[in-house]
Amino acid sequence: MTDGRAGPRTGNAAATPILLHTCCAPCAVYCLDRLEAEGFETTSFFYNPNIHPYKEFERRLDTLRSYSSMRGFDLIVDDTYDLDQFLRKVVGTGSGRCAECYDMRLRRAAREASERGFGGFTTTLLVSPYQNHDLIAQVGQKAAADHDVEFVYIDFRPGFREGQSKARELGLYRQPYCGCVYSEMERYYRGKHREVQE
Ligand code: SF4
Q1: Which helix (H) or strand (E) holds 147?
Q2: Which pTM value belongs to this model?
Q3: In the chain, which end has fewer C-beta atoms inside a 10 angstrom radius, N or C?
Q4: What CATH number is associated with residue 28?
């Protein structure tokens, strides 16, 4: 694991430290703006072993690292590529796979927040209109309760387009699918299948 600093910063006495589980840089753009506006001092936390293949994982992580330097926020990275563990959780779960995926990532974020002394955490997954928003909130709250930290629920979705547009202007890499091998297939294979039928 690599990281920026060891725990929450205390430089700005008025700001509340928070850990932001971050799936990718483009989704972080609006969440960081909003958290700053709401008085939080945000540290980003990357843990996303769901991303497939590994080169895509590296590309998303590299983009987040660049954005962290560009914007100047702290970044903690757990770059363990738990592919085997991830697949054990999701294979055969059908439409339930996202619940397992959220659980794996948000539990890890809750543990990180607890161990590093952050009072709470939240996630960039709450910015996407394509994710199961209510389920993310439920899973986040359960993970938080189990680690004795707070899950800070914010509906970031109204800022999704604004964040993606800023990411485009900044030249950040914007991925074409959610992350796992299934989502990659759904993005490309279904389109191809339709093409053949038409
Ligand atoms: S579609 Fe996205 S949220 Fe669902 S399992 Fe795949 S990577 Fe995780």
Answers
A1: helix 133-147
A2: 0.91
A3: C
A4: 3.40.50.620
